[in-house]
Amino acid sequence: MPPGTAWRRPASAGVQVRELRELAELDEVYRLYDSIWRPDPKNPPVTTELLRALTKAGNYVGGAYDGDELIGACVGFFEAPAEVAMHSHVAGVSGAARGRNVGFALKLHQRAWALQRGVRAISWTFDPLIRRNAYFNIVKLAARPTEYLTNFYGLMDDGINNGDDSDRLLVRWQLDTPEVAAAAGRRPAAGLELSEATIVLARAEDGRPLMGSTPDGGTLLVAVPVDVEGLRGTDPAAAKDWRAATREVLGGLLADGAQVTGFDRSGWYVLELPGKGLV
């Protein structure tokens, strides 16, 4: 086993994570995802047949079990260059298992599986407006955003996205770096020192996005809404305002060469401009 693969799953997760290959197990993944996303029946996140083909071709499907119940799953496939990189297409955890580190346990299993096969990097996308996912990916896993993707999957009419545009951040998880290896045993800091940072996008008192200062280098902050999933149901117009503002500000900064270096748990992306401020 290559160095760094033996990450222990968090004890608090209380789950067993294993690779899934049998048809009945793959059907469980399909049904779990269906219960999480409640998608348009014509466009499910995965099908049992697709999972069967992916596993037959040697790709990754992992499942987290609480006893006999599947409560989380993760699906990935190899990407170019072949067999040294993977794309993690979709991962989900039952709402009843939130807060138990099940997603973290799944990613640790996926990392160990990938390193055993010579894979050194895994990429995936996530909605930049969902703050818990931003914190999980950037802080807990030490993955790094590399690109802002506008309406990447098209309009998504399901129980989570609720007809919103599918803007995504593409992240890269460099599996064999000391930073990523250390993330497994590190307790994330409660907050960052942000007093000297420039706020480029803020949250107004009414919860809507508020444009801040024009960036001129150094440390920059971009806010996200407190709960965009709830906002999509209670105030769709505000949710769309957040999508447009984040696309303009965060997407624009990344296109101009800024780098996301962190995410504060209170709901701020932390960015640095190359050659200015901290690197």
UniProtKB/TrEMBL annotation:
Query: Keywords of this protein's UniProt record, alphabetized?
Result: Transferase
Domain N-acetyltransferase: start-end pairs: 15-176
Molecular function as annotated in GO:
acyltransferase activity, transferring groups other than amino-acyl groups
Pfam families listed in its UniProt record: Acetyltransf_1
The record, for PROSITE patterns, names: GNAT
* Protein's UniProt name: GNAT family N-acetyltransferase
Q: Please report the organism this UniProt entry assigns to the protein.
A: Kribbella qitaiheensis
